[in-house]
Amino acid sequence: MGALEDGYFGVCSFMSRTNCCSGECGPNGLPLTPPSIAIIGRFQFLTSLRHPNLCQYLDIQRGKFDRIFVISEHYCKCVHDVVNENKRKRFELLPKIAYETLSALQYLHNCQICHRYLSGENVLINEKGTVRLSNYGLYYMTDSGRNVPFDIQHAVYSAPEVYVSDMNCQPTGPKGDIWSVGLMLLELVLFLYLLCYTLGKEPVLDSLLLHFQESTKWISENEDPNLADILQLISNSLTLKPSARLPGLDESFQFANPGIEHLAVVVKEKDVIYQLRRMAVLHRCLEAYPYTKDKLVVEARSDVPPLYRGYIWTALLDVPCTIDYKYANIDKESPTAADRQIEVDIPRCHQYDELLSSPTAHEKFKRIIKAWIVSHPHYVYWQGLDSLCAPFLHLNFSNESLAYGCLSSFIDNFLKDFFLKDNSEVMQEYLGVFKMLIAFYNAKLYNHLSKVNFQPEFTIGKLNRLHLDVLPLHKLFHVWDVLLLGGNAFPLCIGAAVLCDMEDRLLQCEFNECIILFSDVPEINVENCLKKALEIYQLAPKTLLYQRRLSAVFVNGKSNCRLDPFSFTLQVGTQLGLHLEEMDNDNVAQCPEICAEEMLFLCERKKNDVNNSLIIVDVRDKEDFDYYSIPGSINIPYNSAFEDGNFFLPSMLKNLLNKHYYMTVIVGSGSDLKARQFTLLLVGLNYSRICLLHRGIEVLWERKNS
To answer: Which part of the chain is the Rhodanese domain (predicted)?
Structure first.
């Protein structure tokens, strides 16, 4: 401990929170630690702080009834005493007070400590005129105020975010201290004590400006400062280089910053001006719906304003305008076989959300779910339906019929036949496509999971519930904003993105470790996950994503993705398109496939992109290849890739696959399995983006001759 010199011992006393009983125990079976003990434990770090502009903390004692006594260095003179001295001396001290106060705060902030209670009374000055900051450890030692029954803030000096954080029960950062310093220095400049200053009837800024003019006449008797001079002073005090300033609104405060459109959705949602502009655009789209449906889709690709999210989702899901009449005529009161399970599940659904955990929400949950069960007699209630309903109820809390309409449309479009009483066949089909998607995009991860026998069955639960039990609602909204535009296949891409995000950990895990890892999925970075999912969707063949006879949803026989306007539109049943009936052969090993129409589309699209081209490998015999082949394809006969019964990769193909390519398509005859086996062998060698031509090269030959 340093010498006190002209200082004194000071004592600060307060009561700690007493919210735990003496006999109460925690999950480990041990008694809970009283808040007063926790305060004493955190205080020890404060005693190690050393700075010439800080009052040193000396000791702490715990008294009766959990009263805490904090002993520290103290001085009798504070900044408010300087206010009462003559004007010229105060202005001489002002730069020194400002510098030393900010120096002390910088040291505290570097130590991860916020003052939170900074005011003129806590900025002490010793006999030498040196600033000594006091009471700076109260917020830290009480664990951001959690261990005391009072608010750690000042009625005059605390920043606005301090009051907001108290309402949200969140700790504040160092910016609030800078606000308090600014107000304290304002007192020195204006020669007034803000707590005792009474404003007149005129506006606040005018009142302060008049006081400033009156107080500064001694500086220049002939020229009074005006508002323009003050604004110029503030402007000159900003960072000189504009690019080094914090991004914010422009000087007019009327137009949104164009750069914000490229920021994260969370950031954009907090920008009021940007949200006003987006709401104006989407309001016009909603007013003219359905005539502006295409425009609405284009705008929704950018982001969805939270205030209009419920209406935009309703439009994207094509909920009919007669949904009010339909919902009103459904019997929601008669008992059903699922009533007991619904009563058990609903109170546990999103308990952290104040709105959804209310009794009113529970009643609405029950009515909406029962209405869906009654109106869909071919389906049954499965656990998770309540969580599926939660986002729609949250967004349409005052309109049950819209929530019901969104839920019904969502299940029809994204979870077709998942709620059948026996949905095993649908689930197996979904699992098969999910496995092939992983094999296509990340063959290394696919081979490792196959090696340790970790099948997608262990992850499909979270995938099937569309991450409802992994993400809180505010993050789930951002995922579903994209999901509703991505179509029926996009949930597969999100699941694959989550797996790939965990690749480094999964590659080091055996079966048991994988099970443990998926039993407690770590926090997901939603922004990165969506970017990865979109990348997977753009790369993966639509043939692969939609080769689901039972659960795939098509619009007029075509895939429906509004997320990427330039993506391939898959057609079902056409000569070169997808034929779902040929996907049901259980005797044939599954591998990623692409139909001829999609392959030709990609060939045309990538023909000028040398560094991101399409590789077409024809594994038929040379005679067949010379007779008819796809322009630009290379011939590597299936038999030439084997030596003594062992598969080896020809050097020419190996060099091609080691370069950057968009996709490799293996072409063969549809009458044998050579091309399929060749594809599986390449996947087994950890080569990604490998797929097989659907139905073989014969479909192209037939079209040529037709």
So the answer is: 610-702
Residue 70: inside a domain, yes or no? yes
pLDDT recorded at residue 28: 45
How many residues are given for the chain? 706
176 shares a domain with 302: no
Residue 465 DSSP symbol: T
Give the three-class secondary structure for 690: strand
Q: Which of 66-75, 176-185, 390-399, 580-589 has the lowest mean pLDDT?
A: 580-589
| C-alpha span between 663 and 536 (Å, rounded) | 12
In a domain, 88, yes or no: yes
Helix intervals (H) in 2-86: 35-46, 79-83
pLDDT tens across 211-234, in order? 555 655 544 545 555 656 666 666
Q: At what angle do helices 385-395 and 309-316 cross, to 10 degrees?
A: 120
Number of Cβ within 10 Å of residue 303's Cβ equals 20
* End residue of a domain, out of 387, 414, 441: 414
3-state class of 77 per DSSP? strand
Q: HSE of 287 in the Cβ direction (CA atoms, 13 Å)?
A: 6
Paired tokens of 406: 């969104």
Residue 139 shares a structural domain with residue 272: no
Q: Which of 380, 397, 414 is the last residue of a domain?
A: 414
Q: Which domain holds residue 382?
A: 323-414
CATH number where 655 lies? 3.40.250.10
Q: Are residues 143 and 287 part of one domain?
A: no
Q: Which residues pair with residue 692 across a beta bridge?
A: 593, 666
b/e map 411-427, b = 16+ CB within 10 Å:
bebbbbbbbbeebeebb
Q: Which residue has the higher pLDDT, 628 or 244?
A: 628
CATH of the domain at 365: 1.10.8
The single-letter code of the amino acid at 508 is Q
Based on the number of CB atoms within 10 Å of its own CB, is 142 exposed (0-12), middle (13-18) or buried (19 or more)? Answer: buried
Whole-number Å distance between alpha carbons of 329 and 20: 51
Both 170 and 119 in a single domain? yes
Structure tokens at 162: 């301090």
